[in-house]
């Protein structure tokens, strides 16, 4: 140990110990309970209110079916394996279309963000396309590709690409200039600058864009499935909903709507929420 | 009219591992006169930088001549608008002068920013390692050197922490370690301690003096804190504002180790503060 150095090191480590933030995370079960409990309460209250309306008999049950009937519809179809098939069909379409949208939207966003001419040419168009309801693409899709899965994918992709691209653009635009300076002062150029500084810096914004793009994909998929009906198309959640309309079966319709909601929310909270939380926590953007 | 700009490119060979001696902390004092003979590590000749053109053009730096001797700790001091940041950018090779030449010895200088500029998605260790990764230093060498550097700034044990967990002072020490990892001969520091509290700043002054002596680095330190400049510098250059020009210079041959409250230092600081105030008053109402 160096004599002149020792007191400074001790002093400094004392200050560090006082200032280092060591916030212990609460135990996992506790966090799950704090997060889940309010949600469970909300669901219970909603179902209770629903049951109350039914019990008051203000409307006949074919207009507002009781919750238990919907549940029985669900368990019956689950028993025949139809539920799994519907969910699987829709999820597969949603995920494949979504991945294709990422593959198209990401380079498109990079081009818009980095090439001035492209930004001026189509930047506002892509931003504007986000407001266009993607259900309009069903019509050209059917005319071009008929009642096929290609039509469904077209709607999903066109619905989600603008979100992905816009996410890339705003993530790159909001890059703090200091970090670019840091990278350049260390000699990072071109690809190295992108790999080490720009892309990791843009990750939280990109993830936000991807999360939004998923909800656009899912909505577009449902719009496409509800409208396109064909034996070749298989049986997704949207087709199930349309079926309920044809049969004037409100119980079935409610069950389909709830399933669509649950699957959409499940993907969001099982895939995106943990990813987002992990990224934000690492960077100290979120209190532990 | 354009000036030749010479910022020598870094050799593509990986930087040589340069172990930092740990046992020579008592030898802070420098023989007077030794530095005068030393060759320049940084040389600015008639450097002018104009931003924009026409009527809206801004003359940020005007005909600045500046030589920083090898191993010297030079403090650049000035009020707002003295072109300190412009001068640092020019020396760092992030900007080129409109007229004049900038020469820096030993390749790209390392830069330390006011708020550290650590990458929030990397651990402390990975932050320090980054310049070596960019320079193509092999992994095991990077690891070993990073560990040495973290020990040098007294942050061993914090390698796996994230920047947001650290205090401002600790972040600046990580930034210093990262700058040293660049293996540059010249270290540029842009008001690195301005945002820190007094206790932390005092400790970091001591730290920086110790590390500079150990690493035998040439330092250009920008500040507007006169006491800080007198505490740290071998020489102090006062700049005028709008445009930035070299106004006055002081050799600070006070014995080391120094303290912030040394009486000799306090007297000199008062003298310099008067000059700084006179310069600021020049821009006031008359």
What would your notes on this structure say?
The complex is a heterodimer of chains A (288) and B (286). Chain A is mainly α and 288 residues long. Chain A is built from eleven helices and no strands. Chain A has helices at 6-19, 28-55, 67-79, 82-114, 116-129, 138-145, 149-173, 177-185, 190-227, 237-246, 250-282. In chain A, helix 9 packs parallel to helix 10. Chain A starts with 5 loop residues before the first helix and ends in a 6-residue tail after the last helix. Chain B is an alpha/beta fold and 286 residues long. Chain B contains eight helices and nine strands. In chain B, the strands form two sheets. A six-stranded mixed β-sheet of chain B has the order 5-6-7-3-8-9, sandwiched between helices. A three-stranded antiparallel β-sheet of chain B has the order 2-1-4. Chain B is globular and about 60 Å long. Residues 1-35 of chain B have low confidence and may be disordered. Classes of the chains: A mainly alpha (288), B alpha/beta (286). At the A-B interface, helix 1, helix 8 and helix 9 of A face helix 3 and helix 6 of B.
């Amino acid at each position: 140990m160096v004599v002149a150095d020792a007191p400074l090191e001790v002093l400094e480590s004392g200050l560090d110990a006082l200032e280092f933030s060591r916030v212990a995370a609460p135990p996992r079960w506790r966090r799950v309970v704090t997060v889940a409990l309010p949600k469970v309460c909300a669901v219970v209250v909603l179902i209770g209110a629903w049951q109350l309306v039914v019990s008051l008999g203000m409307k006949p049950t074919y207009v507002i079916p009781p919750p238990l009937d919907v549940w029985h519809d669900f368990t019956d179809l689950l028993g025949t394996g139809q539920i799994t098939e519907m969910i699987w069909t829709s999820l597969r379409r949603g995920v494949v279309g979504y991945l294709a949208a990422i593959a198209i939207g990401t380079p498109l966003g990079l081009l818009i963000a980095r090439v001035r001419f492209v930004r001026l040419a189509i930047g506002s168009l892509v931003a504007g396309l986000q407001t266009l309801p993607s259900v309009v693409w069903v019509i050209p899709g059917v005319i071009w590709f008929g009642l096929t899965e290609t039509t469904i994918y077209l709607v999903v992709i066109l619905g989600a690409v603008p979100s992905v691209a816009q996410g890339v653009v705003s993530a790159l635009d909001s890059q703090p200039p200091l970090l670019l300076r840091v990278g350049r002062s260390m000699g990072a150029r071109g690809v190295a600058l992108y790999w080490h500084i720009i892309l990791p810096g843009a990750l939280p914004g990109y993830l936000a864009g991807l999360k939004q793009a998923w909800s656009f994909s899912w909505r577009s998929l449902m719009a496409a499935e509800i409208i396109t009906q064909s034996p070749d198309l298989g049986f997704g959640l949207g087709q199930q909903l349309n079926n309920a309309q044809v049969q004037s079966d409100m119980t079935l319709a409610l069950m389909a709507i709830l399933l669509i909601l649950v699957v959409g929310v499940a993907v969001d909270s099982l895939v995106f929420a943990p990813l987002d939380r992990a990224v934000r926590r690492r960077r100290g953007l979120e209190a532990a | 009219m354009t000036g030749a700009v010479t910022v020598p490119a870094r050799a593509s060979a990986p930087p040589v591992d340069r172990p930092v001696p740990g046992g020579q902390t008592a030898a802070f004092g420098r023989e007077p006169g030794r530095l005068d003979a030393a060759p320049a590590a940084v040389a600015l000749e008639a450097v002018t930088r104009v931003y924009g053109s026409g009527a809206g053009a801004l003359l940020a730096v005007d005909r600045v001549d500046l030589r920083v001797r090898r191993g010297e700790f030079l403090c650049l001091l000035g009020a707002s608008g003295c072109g300190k940041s412009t001068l640092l950018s020019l020396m760092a090779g992030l900007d080129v002068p409109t007229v004049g030449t900038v020469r820096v010895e030993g390749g790209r200088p390392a830069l330390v920013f006011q708020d550290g500029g650590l990458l929030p998605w990397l651990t402390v260790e990975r932050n320090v390692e980054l310049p070596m990764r960019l320079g193509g230093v092999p992994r095991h060498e990077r690891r070993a050197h990073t560990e040495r550097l973290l020990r040098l700034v007294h942050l061993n044990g914090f390698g796996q922490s994230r920047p947001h967990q650290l205090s401002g002072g600790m972040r600046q020490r990580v930034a210093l370690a990262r700058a040293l990892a660049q293996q540059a001969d010249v270290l540029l520091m842009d008001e690195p301690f301005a945002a820190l509290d007094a206790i932390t700043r005092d400790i970091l002054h001591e730290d920086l003096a110790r590390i500079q002596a150990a690493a035998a680095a040439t330092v250009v330190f920008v500040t507007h804190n006169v006491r800080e400049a007198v505490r740290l510098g071998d020489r102090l250059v006062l700049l005028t504002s709008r445009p930035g020009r070299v106004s006055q210079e002081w050799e600070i041959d006070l014995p080391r180790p120094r303290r912030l409250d040394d009486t000799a230092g306090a007297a000199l600081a008062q003298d310099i503060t008067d000059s700084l105030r006179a310069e600021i008053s020049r821009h006031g109402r008359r």
